[in-house]
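Folds abound. A case:
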Amino acid sequence: MNPQFKKGIVDIVILNCLYQKDSYGYELVKTISEFVNVKESTIYTSLRKLTNLEFLSTYDKESTDGPKRKYYKVTTSGIDKLILLKDDWNNFKTNIDYLLEGKK
């Protein structure tokens, strides 16, 4: 898959995963990597960006496997952003499907 295209969908994927459940960075990387071949650094860059934009917040949680982990959680504005991104994605997908099926 084209790297630029993947970068464009990383934010929506991260927001959607974290909307379903809070997660720490490495767990999120493993989850997303099962479905999309994306670099770990790309995911962490998006996490920082989304946190700086206040679409995500963070908190520390003790781990039984070592040091505390930084967990990410979607904020109210992050949920609003996710809704907009999903609408954009669905419109984009519908239009591309329409073009690929030769109906236009």
